[in-house]
């Protein structure tokens, strides 16, 4: 008689202390250790003793003791540190950041740091012989807009990194998140007016639709299902991680229903939007974020994922058996009470 044992597959998770990565850590660890597709997680952080890393560790004390969760150092601008972090892993969850923690984006060239990080991540995954590379990516808006919007670098750079990964690595699956519900916590999306009424204010017509994502929960469950099914079923696929499309004017209506607070849709101008982002992120990001919103305001409503895919092209439900959260689900899960 033969007994079969399954060794858990180790997944290195980049951005493990952030929105998306922390959701991936949670969803991977939630796969029971006795399940045939169980995982151990190598959570990559610049500093395993930072307060953020300690917070992550505190959520999973048993998993750390049992070895199902390890926190390891790794910096996306230091390829050698990534090779060490990826050594012996079966899979990598990759996420890149258009922002630089603690630094402003002064010029458009500054945004190229994301490409540097992406190249390092792909190079380290190649050297380490990673079997399944799952990347949080975004569509190419220069192409989608037929060349009208060529400066949405934080989308197009992610798309370029996804293409590089596909050309260099054996099995790549892309997740493309919608707008993050967490954005409504930012002042350019939502503020209170002088009467204390919650004002949702992105610079788009209220009847315009967009698709959204809970960046932590949704990316987590999609990535965990993709790793569970493995490259045989999911390599080369692109999964949009998006809710059913919602009108911008529905944000206040849903918020009011869940939170019993008055809320309105009252958009700010594109200039105000760009200037607010420039103040907080940096001047080099202003045109990028303006063009993103300009595209969202004209993107075809019948297409999903920032107007880039037909609904029929979305195989997430059929392949993975998952769907992204509604705004109401995110509100209840996060407990957000308004600005
Ligand atoms: N907002 C939206 O609507 C939206 C929609 C789609 C996509 N996105 C994209 O989502 C991305 C941000 O993802 P997120 O919200 O999950 O990120 P996040 O919560 O801001 O977390 C950033 C993570 O990156 C890690 N990190 C920072 N610098 C690093 C470095 N040099 N080396 C290694 N790790 C580093 C941090 O870890 P440590 O500090 O522990 O090192 C942290 O875990 C952006 O690129 C954005 O374009 C946003």
Automatic annotation (TrEMBL):
Annotated NmrA-like domain residues: 9-297
Membership in a protein family: Belongs to the NmrA-type oxidoreductase family.
Organism field: Aspergillus kawachii (White koji mold)
Keywords of this entry: NADP, Oxidoreductase
Family annotation (InterPro entries): NAD(P)-bd_dom_sf, NmrA-like, NmrA-like_oxidored
One Gene Ontology term of the molecular function aspect: oxidoreductase activity
Record carries keyword NADP: yes
Name used for this protein in its record: NmrA-like domain-containing protein
Domain of life: Eukaryota
A GO CC annotation given for this chain: nucleus
